[in-house]
Amino acid sequence: MNSRPPFPSSPPSQPSPYRYLGRGGSERPVRLQIIIALVAGLILVAVPLYLWRRPKPEPIPSADAAMVDAGAYAADAGALADAGSELPAGVTLSPFTTIKCENPGPGTTPPERCDHVTFFEDALSRAIRDNVPCAPTSKATTQVSFVFEMDFRRKRTNLYAGKSTSREIRGKTKELIRCVRRAMPTPDWGTIPHQYVKYRINVMATYPPTESF
Hints:
Layout (H helix, E strand, L loop, with lengths): L26 H27 L9 H24 L5 E2 L3 E6 L15 H13 L11 E10 L4 E6 L12 H10 L14 E10 L6
């Protein structure tokens, strides 16, 4: 005789009625409560930080403060002017003159049509001004004619004193030429704008009398 099971079995296509006991629909409300708590915590932390770190408006300076600043600026300017008046007079330079410029081949270019190679002109001006102590001493105002040659093909330069140099110091400019030449920067030939291959330029430097002579 066949014995019947005490309970009817569930069909295989239906889940067991005891599989989800204890879970029900409480999972979604718990997650929502956690998210709300996190957002509230972030707000409680962010708002005090913003109020603490926000930029404070700067006070508008008063008219009295502006007058004090202007007076201090005027005093500083006056001090600089007094200091400048005590400085010894330095060398003065004439405008640069292009003596010659040329390219390979026949024909010559008039000097007035030559372009100015500003890299070498600026460098030579700075080197002359920075080496005034190397100039020959003299009781009178003297002039030194600086002649500077540049060759972009051979990448060479040459500096010497021209014939227009003052007679009393002519032949005494070797140390000055050496100092100025040493102060010239090393050129990056490929980056210097120019229209011709060779140049010869000139600048006259006027030196004041040497007081300690």
